[in-house]
Amino acid sequence: MGVRLIVVDDHRLLAEALASALKLRGHRVVAAAAPAAGAADLVIARAPEVCLLGTAAPADPGVFDPVVKIKRERPQVAVLVLGPVPSPRGIAAAFAAGASGYVRHDERIEGVERAIMKARAGESAVAPQLLQGAFGELLNPAAQPDDEAQRLLEMLTPREVEVLVRVADGEDTRLIAAGMGIAPSTARTHVQRVLMKLGVGSRLEAAALAARTGLLDRAGSLRGVGGAEPDLP
């Protein structure tokens, strides 16, 4: 039985070519679109079984934010990333965001189809060697010479670290204020400063960045460390 699919890639020609090939193999492609940045809203609206999300730069910050949003709003949708040969950090970021698999752009259509079927069945669809590298990255983030989590943490004060953890837990401004014993206006200011320091434009992006880099694991051990900071005026 064919799979109900959405194919998204920054290059429309690639998205449409892959969609055509999958249709010929009996699958139902409900949309083929570009750019990949708009994937989340499209998937949420159309609710396919599997979304094929193409990316040319799996290690770039924010590239898997659509995956985070899709899994939050449509957790039943399996997201399969298609991209170049990734670094362990890139594939780890894909899985940390909630992707069900990673397929290289140069894979044959038969390989893509096998990955689609695995993803729909709830299995991980990724080559063993890529998965091994990803697990190493997830289990030993501190071993990487370019420690992005530590670099980001050094930008934040202890109170901002706590705010970030609460944002990642899904707390709104009112809950953050109540949990930290501060005024809502102060909580709102802290949130804005965290977003500014991390270089992101939304709470969702901040949560995705924190999860992707391992920053949340580090932050958990730092909450409550250091002296209290005065509330902002």
From TrEMBL:
Record Pfam families: GerE (PF00196), Response_reg (PF00072)
Keyword Transcription regulation in record: yes
Keyword flag Acyltransferase: no
SUPFAM superfamilies, alphabetized: C-terminal effector domain of the bipartite response regulators, CheY-like
Record's keyword terms, sorted: DNA-binding, Transcription, Transcription regulation
Occurrences of domain Response regulatory (ranges): 4-120
Chain ranges of the HTH luxR-type domain: 149-214
InterPro entries in UniProt: CheY-like_superfamily, Sig_transdc_resp-reg_C-effctor, Sig_transdc_resp-reg_receiver, Tscrpt_reg_LuxR_C
Origin superkingdom: Bacteria
PANTHER family hit by this protein: DNA-BINDING TRANSCRIPTIONAL ACTIVATOR DEVR_DOSR
Protein name (record): Response regulator transcription factor
Species name: Streptomyces musisoli
